[in-house]
Amino acid sequence: MSNFSLPPNLTDLGWRQPLWYQYEQCAEAPYAFIFYFTVKVFNLALGFPANTLVMWHIARGKSEASTSDVFIFNLAALDTFFCLMTPIELTNRLYLDHWGIWHLQRFAYGVKDTTPLFLTCICLDRYMAVAHPIVFMNIRDNRIRIGISALVWLMILAYAIIKSILGVMSVTKVFSSLILSSFFIMVFCNISIIWVLRKSVAGKETMNPVKKKAFKMVVILLTIIVVNYLPPVALMPFASTYTFIQMNCQISVSVFSIMDLSSTIDPILYISKMDRMNFCSCLKGTAKKTEINVSV
């Protein structure tokens, strides 16, 4: 509880300082909320500028763009919005406790829940480029990917609005199905690309750099899904076996905080795989630009 007394006019109106650990029962086990708030601040401090940098790089590098960059740009935009919600959410959790902002918070988390849709689009794009190059050459037009992105955004907004209005439990099954289906698609893409690469490397000393790049991308996406998104899905079926304190004060807060970390992990992984000289011209001694073709 708060260590200070409220002004009489506020207490008379029934207002009280919200608990930083959300539920009174969590007073005996509040430490997961410290991790939660730390992740929020971390995402705002590092995730927001990282996602902004990714969007800036993609927007200015049209001649060097990968077909997957359309989906990566949308993913970064989604994470940027989620990171920007941090000051609003923390102010509401720690001070305001306003019902309208709680609905906005649920909307933001609905948007975040559906991040795997864009991750899956990126993975399938890499898979088509490696496993079915002839078909891929006929669908390289980015207008197709823009259309797919628009459809994905409609699905994201529908999910987020339903979660905001009807509550978390209204979309639990949809969320679980989304994560599991994304995971299985990632595994399929991963195994397929490994199989193609094995055949292409047979009898050769070096691997095709384009296919190697695609393989690394799919492995990164699979890692993101496994680390950030599978824990909440794996725990959902056993929710009824936990006590209120275990579920609402420890487990759910921790696993969803891990899921939130993807807002920073995604752009950092994208930045780390880029050629530094191409990513930031300030790293060059001259204005000369190294041309790298990543058009798959």
What does this entry look like structurally?
This protein is an all-alpha fold and 296 residues long. Helix content is 72%, strand content 0%. The protein contains 13 helices and no strands. The protein has helices at residues 8-12, 31-60, 69-84, 86-96, 99-113, 115-131, 133-138, 142-166, 172-201, 209-235, 244-260, 262-272, 276-279. α5 packs antiparallel against α8 and α6 (115-131) packs parallel to α9 (172-201). The longest helix is centred in the N-terminal third of the chain and has 30 residues, at 31-60. The model is unreliable at 1-13 and 285-296 (pLDDT under 50).
Describe the SSE topology.
Blueprint: H1 8-12, H2 31-60, H3 69-84, H4 86-96, H5 99-113, H6 115-131, H7 133-138, H8 142-166, H9 172-201, H10 209-235, H11 244-260, H12 262-272, H13 276-279
Helix pairs in contact: 2-3, 2-11, 2-12, 3-5, 3-6, 3-12, 5-8, 6-9, 6-10, 9-10, 10-11
